[in-house]
């Protein structure tokens, strides 16, 4: 991490990265300035709208419809010219906005994409660089979250979001400059309610944030309970703990449900207050505007200019605040990333420093070694350990569990620095050796073999990159693995699965041994390397390991007598200290600590296995084979598994989902629906499951329908206010005050409907989600081992169903479906009003308005098409990263950091290249969407003038009524588009979840059916044949006959 980091900021928060889109290069800086100059013109729309409003007010005053009036033609030409002049302003402004929007989107998106791609690469490299002590303190699950979720937050909070932040901020400033310039008194009147709205908003936001945090924590607890039970499913079944785990999960969900309902109430109150204040401010502004027009202080057009300027400025400020929030989240997420990137580990595996002796003999000297793990500094594991290993010797470390045997192996690999003392190789302290060089001369086979999710061949090549196929075959033979590998249809190309799931424990261990052998190390570390093998396999592998140990130093952490009987030296360790050193026979003769270990059955003598097996075969009524641990130890181990946490690998699916965009998540759901043979659900099927929530849904839907009429009615009130400004005297005051107060009525109606929608849709959604999660988990807990062996039912996938897919279903019945009712009613009423007042204008606007929808559809289709191609590559890079993090000890022992980083970067290249291409296409669509509004208004007003001039429309205000009715109503159509995207995901997710609910186990783990005789403990297998359902080609038991007597 040297040259690679020169383009990255140092010291904490990446402020230079956040600023980068603004001043990344000279042309980008100029682009930003040009964009903001253009965007500040946007508030001047309010000036054009005010001018046009005044034109129409004058048209009403002069009664253009009366063609016999004096000066009709002159006034008609003047009106025509003024409106056409304002239409041209719209066209000019639209062109400027198009160019500026394209430059903005291109500049920020391209820079952001490069920045995020660079951040991903550097962060993963930084993780690979850290020492094991750091990993002990940082869970791999949290690192995976940072790699995906945090980087996505940085991406969301930078790039075009920074452009939008500047854009909305400039609109806010520009809008209020215009408003205060035209009339500061009316502007202050419109702002009078702002402090109230800000205070209420801040208070509710604070409560919401607290509730959201609490909800997330409780859902995380529920998720942890589910994941814990799923990853230990066999242990749960063995203890009949299904009901216990289900009840525990339900209790956690209940707490989250209460918080979710509280959030729904808060959202309802927040929306009600917001709309009440907004519409009340409109009432007050028009009331005071009427007084100002009556007194001659202002014209009606000026009132409209101030109104539009303040409204646009306020809306822009609301949008800007959201961008500030997103940027703040990005800064926080980036801060966590840069803490890792900027950290230099105490044991730097990337460092080129240190000695690299060419000829290594393999002599090891452990001198007065003292050590405590960084996570438990108060517990001293090694207390002055001393022993030596001569060149070519095989030395065994023995002792009870926790005495420090494996710790010696970790220190020898320089995973940690000792508290005091030294480990020397050929007389050189390992602190002085280059880290990578040290680990390259040492081969390790650990107690728990860690394989990577690739082929058998690739796993062995991780031992040595330039190994030949013949060397791989030879290593497999030595490890007693060649025969079973040869039986696989794909041989060396056989995929081992996630964490080697497709291999048995013994097969995994033998592949790991072969991987160590191809390294041809000078020092071989065997940390209970044959613990997963049966007696026959172990004896063969042990012989191979003994042959491999010739001419190299071997350090063995022992668990069986066969692994240590022939050792040149045995070092007996008790409580972190060496208590005895000698050969097997010498130590037995002493009858000391080692003798006690042997008699306490800590070891199983392989030499005694065959006679015992023979006796077992000849005496069906008894089994005398010794065990490696007592039955009480086994129970404690199982209990530990039951209460233990989720294995880090099984959270892969959830972490990978963090990086998915919505369209990628939809593709995942489609793919899994097809893989599992499930059918997507429809709304009626979802509503069937939501039957208990129907009362809430009915109330919320009625509120949504009423809300749908608000904005069409608002357009009528608004048009009426403009027409009122054409009046004079007391009639102006009377009509102006009346229609102003109607906005207050609208405020009360809107506040009520918003509250009922948000609250009752929210409650219904929370209750449905909880019930589905609970039922799915309870049904899964009924399942047998066959169910969990199916890759479609892996703990990661089931966790995704519970934590992600079940909540996705609520999108079909929550506030989003309310938005659909709202939009449909709003558009329907808006069109009725528009066609009633001027069908010609309504027809034109209806004809050209879909251009916005077309641009959006083209954009989404293009983006989703590209995303589908990228998803697989991103998923592969994610798996590489998470697998490397989980198996970090194996990665560092094999010095795979650089190779895995290169592989990770390779899988990022295609998505990065496609994202840049998408950005180029996206800028034109963004520019089109940002500017089309201006061209539509220009065309609409120009056509409206034509209708008035040709006397097709007698009342000029009908043009405004028509245009405003469609404009204010059509604004809600975005909710429909948003809903159907979420609805599609909800139907797919529902299909997957409902299938899980309807599945029946082959062996029901919670049924009360079946006989319940008194059990005396005798066990008998009679000609048992068995094959795992997922591996039908391999017969595991072939007519097994076995009897185990009572006791």
Automatic annotation (TrEMBL):
<feature type="transmembrane region" description="Helical">
    <location>
        <begin position="90"/>
        <end position="112"/>
    </location>
</feature>
<feature type="transmembrane region" description="Helical">
    <location>
        <begin position="265"/>
        <end position="288"/>
    </location>
</feature>
<feature type="domain" description="ABC transporter">
    <location>
        <begin position="364"/>
        <end position="600"/>
    </location>
</feature>
<feature type="transmembrane region" description="Helical">
    <location>
        <begin position="694"/>
        <end position="718"/>
    </location>
</feature>
<feature type="transmembrane region" description="Helical">
    <location>
        <begin position="819"/>
        <end position="837"/>
    </location>
</feature>
<dbReference type="InterPro" id="IPR027417">
    <property type="entry name" value="P-loop_NTPase"/>
</dbReference>
<feature type="transmembrane region" description="Helical">
    <location>
        <begin position="959"/>
        <end position="980"/>
    </location>
</feature>
<dbReference type="GO" id="GO:0005743">
    <property type="term" value="C:mitochondrial inner membrane"/>
</dbReference>
<dbReference type="InterPro" id="IPR003439">
    <property type="entry name" value="ABC_transporter-like_ATP-bd"/>
</dbReference>
<keyword id="KW-0812">Transmembrane</keyword>
<dbReference type="Pfam" id="PF00005">
    <property type="entry name" value="ABC_tran"/>
</dbReference>
<comment type="similarity">
    <text>Belongs to the ABC transporter superfamily. ABCB family. Multidrug resistance exporter (TC 3.A.1.201) subfamily.</text>
</comment>
<feature type="transmembrane region" description="Helical">
    <location>
        <begin position="919"/>
        <end position="939"/>
    </location>
</feature>
<dbReference type="InterPro" id="IPR039421">
    <property type="entry name" value="Type_1_exporter"/>
</dbReference>
<dbReference type="InterPro" id="IPR017871">
    <property type="entry name" value="ABC_transporter-like_CS"/>
</dbReference>
<keyword id="KW-0547">Nucleotide-binding</keyword>
<dbReference type="InterPro" id="IPR011527">
    <property type="entry name" value="ABC1_TM_dom"/>
</dbReference>
<keyword id="KW-0175">Coiled coil</keyword>
<feature type="transmembrane region" description="Helical">
    <location>
        <begin position="185"/>
        <end position="204"/>
    </location>
</feature>
<feature type="domain" description="ABC transmembrane type-1">
    <location>
        <begin position="44"/>
        <end position="329"/>
    </location>
</feature>
<protein>
    <recommendedName>
        <fullName>ABC transmembrane type-1 domain-containing protein</fullName>
    </recommendedName>
</protein>
<feature type="coiled-coil region">
    <location>
        <begin position="652"/>
        <end position="686"/>
    </location>
</feature>
<dbReference type="GO" id="GO:0016887">
    <property type="term" value="F:ATP hydrolysis activity"/>
</dbReference>
<dbReference type="GO" id="GO:0015421">
    <property type="term" value="F:ABC-type oligopeptide transporter activity"/>
</dbReference>
<feature type="domain" description="ABC transmembrane type-1">
    <location>
        <begin position="698"/>
        <end position="985"/>
    </location>
</feature>
<keyword id="KW-1133">Transmembrane helix</keyword>
<dbReference type="GO" id="GO:0005524">
    <property type="term" value="F:ATP binding"/>
</dbReference>
<dbReference type="InterPro" id="IPR036640">
    <property type="entry name" value="ABC1_TM_sf"/>
</dbReference>
<keyword id="KW-0067">ATP-binding</keyword>
<keyword id="KW-0813">Transport</keyword>
<dbReference type="InterPro" id="IPR003593">
    <property type="entry name" value="AAA+_ATPase"/>
</dbReference>
<feature type="transmembrane region" description="Helical">
    <location>
        <begin position="738"/>
        <end position="764"/>
    </location>
</feature>
<keyword id="KW-0472">Membrane</keyword>
<dbReference type="Pfam" id="PF00664">
    <property type="entry name" value="ABC_membrane"/>
</dbReference>
<dbReference type="GO" id="GO:0090374">
    <property type="term" value="P:oligopeptide export from mitochondrion"/>
</dbReference>
<feature type="transmembrane region" description="Helical">
    <location>
        <begin position="300"/>
        <end position="318"/>
    </location>
</feature>
